[in-house]
Specification:
The structure holds two protein chains of two kinds. Chain A is mostly helical. Chain A has one domain: ABC transporter involved in vitamin B12 uptake, BtuC (Orthogonal Bundle), CATH 1.10.3470. In chain A, about 70% of the residues lie in helices and about 0% in strands. In chain A, helix 3 packs across helix 13, helix 4 runs parallel beside helix 8 and helix 4 packs across helix 9. The longest helix of chain A has 30 residues. Chain B starts with a strand and ends with a helix. About 0% of the residues of chain B have low confidence. In chain B, strand 19 and strand 20 form a beta hairpin. Chain B is built from 16 helices and 21 strands. Chain B is α/β, with parallel strands linked by helices. Chain B folds into two domains: about 230 residues, 3-Layer(aba) Sandwich (Rossmann fold), CATH 3.40.50; about 230 residues, Rossmann fold (3-Layer(aba) Sandwich). In chain B, about 35% of the residues lie in helices and about 25% in strands. The chains are: A mainly alpha, B alpha/beta. Chains A and B meet through helix 9 and helix 10 of A and helix 1, helix 10 and helix 11 of B.
């Protein structure tokens, strides 16, 4: 292999996340043409919908904040080899804990807001810890406990909305009464976007980056995600790190939940998470589990999803087109796999069965290193 | 059905598991395929049963060359293999398991299947309850079911890989009887892969001996055991002189330790290893020596007895706590049990340090790893990932990651797959450790290695530990007999 080829491959690996995006754009364009719509016109409408004026752009940013927060947290759990499907429920619990402070406490903003954010992070972290403990102590796969806990979190929020936190005038079961003004995050120019939440998100991304790059904890998570048994033999406590990774992600998701109730809305609503947890899973997969890609992919998702609302108004196309586009993109990612799975940028396997396909572990035991 | 193998080769990277083996087997006979661990028996039989294709070479059935796409394809062509671990579905009922392999229609035909199975069971004298679930059966009963499944599938050639491991004497009788019946009355060709010489002598009419991937010899049975042992293990070279070393206090002590697992019970082990002593455990894979090792490391629980480390009862401590008290453990699988593929050498070093800080000081660790790379002669750089190293270098990396000083060092197959130079180098490192009072307990499949490097030796056979031998007064021959279960 020549040096130039090597360089070319490294470049391809680095920019691999772009490939499925481009592939999905082409696919969607073809789809639009099949339905007799113009791809360029649709793209224009999408663009106007996302960036047409200042408010639209701030809307995109306001949606981006919780999405990026959850995605950053998920990078940590994915690194540790955990499928934290429960992130949706962790957002809801964060929103619930923040709402509790907003509804039950009074005080100036500088006191209320830190308390709300801290409560939200604790709520999300505890909810995530449940999944972690169920996994390490009771051998319940985090995917199953996550799905269950998502539903329970949503049920709790619905109960609170229709029960104890019902607005005094009776309400419509759609949400609690609006919070006191002091409890809400300061928003920019009457939009739903809060500069404070933006700063916190940037801090979270930088934090995750430095954890994975420069801390012992981050290294332990990496090792666990790649080979739990070897990590155990090297001295890593899988139980402790698993629960901590879940709690870290839960805290960031909880913070995202707080942003949803304190700046996107002004009260605890039904479906408060807006599916952001599931979207964040897609964002992280599309980003190839790399934290530095996460803010940009999340921004792209946010722009497409917000822009497609205008798309519906402008053209006859349904706003779910944005969902189709992002969905197709993730499918493309899963299809193409990562660059590594396709064998790009990877040295050829030195030991392997020429027939391809690894033999089951139980039978391959004595093949390795047999002299 | 006559079977002929022509110049079968199977390479796994650098390792030549089968290196040009040619055999000719006639129907109506029971053959034995014997050899030490890693001789290539299982590889060869997996090729013959369609589990894996050879790198090169030809299989002929009744003179016609065939190629197997899968075990199912091989069975359809008449070759069936009974694996050491039965390939059944434990939560299923017997009848469902049978149908899974037999019936390929949409609707399951329970009635016919049941009749078929009962007929086969009766003919082979096998007790059969079609409604029992597989996991309620013993290992021997599961084996019999697999056998029925293979026979029903039309197997004319039957391969049995270590079939008597983990089954009772009674079940063994039944198994042997049905094997005789199949060969003599039904004209089937039976191949027994085994290391138990008495079984082979009792059952088989011919033995093929493999050694290091080649056919070492062919022997009519019965014959003197010595002839087989000689072919299996080769000539034992004279031991090189080892500097005498005065051992110190007892470091590791096992008191009446019993380990019970699903497949094997290791009863009542009593063992001491002293500071500076090298203690070797011999035996074929799965004979219990690895379980004893893992119990010493705190990796698996023991049912009865006590493990003492420096006089302290560590039975309930667990692996990590022992690690912090001067125990070191190097498992057999390098990239599966010890190293993390994708992490760099330096990252491995950071993980094993006991003085971990929140932020990693990459520079210091990088320098420290570079130092260790030099000391341990690892061909690699601090930023190389562990999976990019060759097997020998992975082993050196594992040794470089061990703490210093160590009280106790537990090693599984420390030199497996290494070349002579690396092996010598590793033992030099180990002797250095022993000079500092480390007690070393190791497992090896290489009898010469065990005799050459140990002070004392114990042999495991079917979970039972032999008497403890003095390495200076034993021979590969004696160990070979003990491995075969002869006292």
């Amino acid at each position: 292999m020549t040096k130039a080829q090597n360089g070319g491959r490294a470049w391809l690996v680095r920019f691999w996340p772009v490939v499925p995006i481009v592939g999905a754009l082409i696919f969607t364009a073809v789809l639009l043409m099949l339905f007799g719509a113009s791809p360029t016109e649709s793209a224009q409408a999408l663009w106007t919908g996302a960036f047409g004026d200042r408010n639209k752009f701030l809307g995109v940013m306001a949606f981006w904040v919780p999405l990026a927060l959850c995605s950053a947290g998920l990078v940590i759990t994915f690194t540790a080899g955990l499928w934290n499907i429960g992130v949706e429920g962790q957002i809801v619990m964060g929103a619930v804990f923040a709402s509790w402070v907003a509804l039950r406490m009074t005080g100036p903003s500088w006191m209320l807001i830190p308390m709300e954010l801290a409560a939200a992070m604790i709520g999300g972290a505890l909810w995530a810890a449940l999944s972690g403990v169920l996994k390490t102590r009771f051998k319940v796969n985090e995917i199953f406990s996550g799905v269950a806990l998502n539903n329970i979190a949503i049920i709790i929020s619905l109960y609170l909305i229709s029960g104890p936190w019902q607005p005094p005038e009776g309400g419509t079961f759609r949400g609690t009464a609006p919070f006191q003004t002091a409890a809400l995050l300061p928003r920019l120019l009457e939009s739903r976007f809060s500069v404070l939440s933006f700063v916190l998100t940037i801090l979270a991304v930088v934090g995750v980056y430095s954890i994975l790059r420069g801390t012992t904890w981050g290294l332990k998570l990496k090792a666990l995600g790649k080979n739990p048994y070897s990590s155990f033999l090297l001295g890593v406590s899988s139980e402790r790190e698993t629960i901590l990774a879940m709690m870290f992600c839960g805290a960031l998701a909880g913070l995202g939940g707080a942003v949803r109730v304190l700046s996107w809305y002004d009260s605890l609503r039904q479906q408060i998470s807006g599916n952001i947890g599931f979207l964040a899973l897609l964002v992280v997969m599309l980003a190839g589990y790399r934290i530095l890609w996460v803010p940009f992919i999340a921004f792209f998702f946010s722009a497409v999803l917000n822009g497609s609302i205008t798309l519906q108004l402008r053209t006859q196309l349904h706003s779910s087109l944005g969902g189709i586009l992002t969905g197709v993109m993730v499918l493309f990612v899963l299809l193409f796999g990562s660059a590594r799975q396709l064998g790009i940028g990877l040295p050829k396997e030195t030991i392997g069965d020429p027939s391809g396909g690894a033999p089951p572990a139980a039978l391959s035991g004595d093949l390795e290193g047999g002299s | 059905m006559q079977v002929e193998l022509k110049d079968i080769r199977k390479y796994f990277g650098q390792v030549k598991a089968n290196d040009g083996i040619s055999l000719k087997l006639e129907p109506g006979k029971i053959y034995a395929l014997i050899g030490e661990n890693g001789a290539g028996k299982s590889t060869l039989m997996k090729i013959l049963s369609g589990y894996q294709p050879p790198t090169s070479g030809e299989i002929l059935l009744d003179g016609k060359p065939v190629k197997f796409r899968s075990p199912a394809d091989a069975l359809a062509k008449g070759v069936g293999m009974l694996y050491q671990d039965p390939l059944d579905m434990p939560p299923f009922r017997v009848i469902d398991n049978y149908l899974l392999g037999r019936d390929d229609r949409v609707r399951l035909d329970y009635k016919t299947a049941r009749a078929e199975q009962e007929e086969l069971a009766r003919r082979n004298n096998i007790h059969n309850d079609v409604h029992a679930t597989i996991d309620s059966l013993s290992m021997g009963e599961r084996q019999q079911l697999e056998l029925i499944r293979l026979l029903a599938g039309g197997a004319q050639v039957l391969i049995l890989d270590e079939p008597t491991t983990g089954i009772s004497a009674e079940q063994k009788e039944i198994l042997f009887e049905s094997m005789h019946k199949m060969a003599r009355e039904e004209g089937k060709l039976v191949i027994l892969v085994s290391h138990k010489l008495e079984e082979v002598q009792e059952l088989c009419s011919h033995a093929f001996v493999l050694r290091q991937g080649r056919l070492e010899g062919h022997q009519e049975l019965p014959c003197a055991n010595e002839a087989l042992v000689g072919m299996m293990f080769g000539q034992v070279p004279e031991r090189s002189e080892r500097p005498p070393f005065a051992v110190g206090e007892t470091v590791l002590e096992l008191k009446n330790v019993t380990i019970e697992t699903y497949q094997l019970t290791v009863p009542d082990i009593n063992l001491t290893v002293k500071a500076g002593e090298v203690f070797g455990l011999a035996g074929l894979e799965g004979s219990g020596q690895r379980l004893v090792m893992q119990a010493c490391a705190g990796l698996i629980p023991i049912s009865r007895g006590k493990v003492l480390l420096n006089g302290q009862d560590v039975t309930a401590w667990g692996y990590h706590r022992q690690l912090n008290h001067g125990m070191g453990y190097v498992a057999a699988g390098r990239l599966e049990e010890g190293l993390v593929a994708g992490l760099s050498l330096t990252e491995h070093l950071v993980l094993t340090r006991s003085d971990q800080k929140f932020f990693i000081d990459w520079k210091t660790h990088q320098a420290e790893m570079a130092e260790r790379i030099k000391t341990y002669q690892i061909v690699g750089r601090p930023e190389t990932t562990a999976d990019a190293l060759s097997g020998g270098n992975q082993q050196r990396l594992l040794f470089s990651l061990l703490n210093t000083p160590l009280e106790l060092l537990l090693l599984e197959h420390p030199t497996r797959g290494l070349d002579v130079r690396s092996i010598n180098y590793l033992w030099q490192l180990l002797y250095k450790r022993r000079k500092h009072g480390t007690a070393i307990l190791f497992i090896s499949a290489d009898l010469d290695e065990i005799i050459e490097h140990s002070d004392r030796i114990a042999v495991f056979s079917g979970g039972v530990m032999s008497r403890i031998l003095d390495a200076r007064e034993t021979s590969a021959d004696e160990l070979g007999h003990l491995i075969g279960g002869q006292v």
